[in-house]
TrEMBL record:
One of its GO terms (molecular function) is peptidyl-tRNA hydrolase activity. Keywords: Cytoplasm, Hydrolase, RNA-binding, tRNA-binding. The record marks N13 as: Discriminates between blocked and unblocked aminoacyl-tRNA. The gene is pth. It is found in: Cytoplasm. It is an enzyme of class 3 (hydrolase). InterPro entries: Pept_tRNA_hydro, Pept_tRNA_hydro_CS, Pept_tRNA_hydro_sf. The active site is at H23. This is Peptidyl-tRNA hydrolase.
Amino acid sequence: MSTDPWLVVGLGNPGPQYAGNRHNVGQMVLDVLADRMGGSFARHRARAQVLDGRLGVLPGGVPGPRAVLAKPSSYMNVSGGPVGALAGFYGVPPARLLVVHDELDLPPETLRLKRGGGEGGHNGLRSVSAVLQTKDYVRLRVGIGRPPGRTDPAAYVLHDFPSAERRELAVTLEQAADAVEDVVVHGLEKAQQRLHSA
């Protein structure tokens, strides 16, 4: 198993006014992971909040591999700058980058893992791919569903999750954190098999 750290990035927008938005679900997943690591985020010069530690548990109760959790402090559409800077700082190749993001094309409570592929109109992913000059990194897609009626998707993603959805959201965030741990501890293929067969 590689000794290189994983860089796990949760996409979103900075500031408390955005914290509960659908667009920030990636950062919500990282907050769950930080709680599991027993640490707190600290400001990094790469315009991000980071937490460097061990994620998951190996057989025999040994702490899992090293993972750097990162929440860019930039706006979503320029996420690539902080992600590229962090990848360079920690020496993380694209193969060990995992980006957690909201996904309009998946129903709520649905999670999907994949490596590479298109950005599906997601400005955060588009920025990351442009800066890294590759799409060959791992993504955990957290379904938020399409907006009802004629609601503008750009407005929909910037609304908070309604209270009626928050109980299910809490479960989804824990499941997403499980999926991230699975990738870091067991690798993408095993994590995909477990997640997608559930």
